Amino acid sequence: MPNEILKSDLLAPAAASPVPLHAQLRERLRERILDGSYAVHAQLPPESELGALFGVSRITVRQALGDLHKEGLIFKVPGKGTFVAKPKAFQQLSQLEGFAQAMARLGHSIRNVVTSHTAVAADAAVAQQLQVATGTQVAEIRRIRCLNGDPLSVEVTYLPLHIGERLRGADLAQRDIFLILENDYGIALGHADLRIDAIPADAALATALNVAEGSAILRIERLTHGIGADGQAIPLDFEYLYFRGDAFQYRLRLHKQ
To answer: Does the keyword Transcription apply (predicted)?
Structure first.
């Protein structure tokens, strides 16, 4: 029972701490959710019971739960209560690697559905990123990436045409383009520049990702550079990545110098 778990595992927050009580409670609950002490879809006790267990007011409990709800760690079902949400998949931004490679290391399975692989005229934005003239023919690869069987992201990749043509014979349903470029073609990758924002899902994204139109989508623009024979960075792979906001997050650790 969730109530029994809370009584045995959690202690009342220290009132003397300079950290606000709602923040202490939020962190205790977050720890138990992230370490698996609370199973996915387990129901939390009502606010009144949580307040009694921790010796805090319902307002404090409501603040803590509100923070966890904003983080996507819990969800509420009207008339039924508060439940532990399914953990989001995540990828660290500390190193440049393919998505499937990162997910496999965390025990997830990835399947790619290639919806198109064509040659297109580069529009102004793509041309600027790949440093070619507008209208130059480039390869465009569109994929839906499924995590553990569920659609997670839509990815639109642009590459120089000669590389895109070589990729037609590659297993893009199972392998990362990054790994193919490095391991099969011997192209060294250097660094990537990212821009991240959020957008509402339009009809096409909503259908592809099986979410409601208008749902929050994490959008990433990523330009990956290869390393030329002279050691200089060369624009190689420009992508628009659209992730379900309810199922994925990027993580990054920052150090103060």
So the answer is: yes
